[in-house]
Amino acid sequence: MSSVLIVDFVIFQPKAIIMSQKILIVGAGFAGVWGALGAARVLDGAGVRKSDVEITLISPKPELQIRPRLYESEPQRMAAPLRPLLDAVGVNFLEGSVEEISVHDKTVSVVSANGSTRSLAYDRLLLTSGSRLNRPPIPGLAEYAFSVDRIEDAVALDDHFRELAKRPDSPARNTVAVVGCGFTGIEVATELPKRIRELFGADAAVRVVVIGSQDDIGPDLGPNPRPYVSEAFDSLGVETVLGSGVVSVEADGVRTAAGTRIEAMTVIWAGGMRASSLTAQVSSHLDPLGRVEVTPDLRVAEAPAVFVAGDVARALSDDDGHYALMSCQHAIVMGQFGGHNVAADLIGVPTLEYRQPFYATCLDLGEWGAVYSEGWDRQIKLTHAEGKARKQMINTQWIYPPAPNRTEALAAGNPQASLG
């Protein structure tokens, strides 16, 4: 084959292509979408025709759910269509859910919306099936608690608030218990006072209570952002009940291990994430969050034809020992690397080691503003209105897929761009 692939100013000669080889990408979250762009970019740079290597993205819907925005109002708007983008770069889309992966046979089993099942073969697989909200077997949790894990969940919560607005004013109606004092719990809690008053009336005595088993709010955020979170909570009237986890959820409240009962007609669960269960089908080396331990180029050591990116990968992000988090910030870049590597490995050119040395955190704090920090030690850079402006830029522009323009879309798949 006479065409060449140019990566970071180095020219590679791809090996001969066997007709109709298949790259499958499982999951259309941030890692999956940018993974598809990364893979398409490699094949385009090598002059590989779609008839020689097909890329197929598999997901229940042809959309990217903008999950980091689901704490906001109007969650039904938080999805970006994918078919025009995928068509622009020559990536197939298959609507369905992958239920089984056989690394021995190099096949996946896909269940469609109508319940029919089909088996697809792959030559290389990129697993980007993401994460789901961890829901432990707490009595009443499944029956009574809401969440903002998926668009469907956030819409159900929105509908619930609208129904409550029709009920008589009462303390229980006006109280929301947010269980979980991490990133999601904080963003949900600080958004709620304004959101509920818009529905219940400006004079409604809204009460938002954040419950956490840890002794500090935002335990994973470190000490630098915490004073700003406390200031925002005080400003917005958000209460905390810390140091004791929830042991039961009821239709009209929650109870903690310490015996505290909070009457609330709305309970929102924000109790942490766990990787997709598909990880156990490709590797036996999983971390406590269910993520696959991957090699530096995001490969599964015991299944060399499988690469993993996003929330399902435990990947070293820099040379200082920091591992990627379950966040769109890491998923997008890891997707670029994973997509590049799954295609590069197939056509016989070198893969790249995943590296993402820059890390930033932007925490929305409702009407108070937001706090933006940089570095793993979270050095504060922007707060209040300036922080809010940065958060809005992230939420409305930076985390959305590129326009369905082939040149722009392929450029968005470049993993080297993240390294500056």
TrEMBL record:
The keyword Oxidoreductase applies. It is an enzyme of class 1 (oxidoreductase). Pfam families: Pyr_redox_2 (PF07992). GO terms for biological process: aerobic electron transport chain. Its cofactor is FAD. One of its GO terms (molecular function) is NAD(P)H dehydrogenase (quinone) activity. Residues 22-335 form the FAD/NAD(P)-binding domain. It comes from the Bacteria. Keywords: FAD, Flavoprotein, Oxidoreductase. Its EC number is 1.6.-.-. The keyword Oxidoreductase applies. Belongs to the NADH dehydrogenase family. This is Putative enzyme. It comes from Paraburkholderia ribeironis. The lineage of its organism: Bacteria, Pseudomonadati, Pseudomonadota, Betaproteobacteria, Burkholderiales.
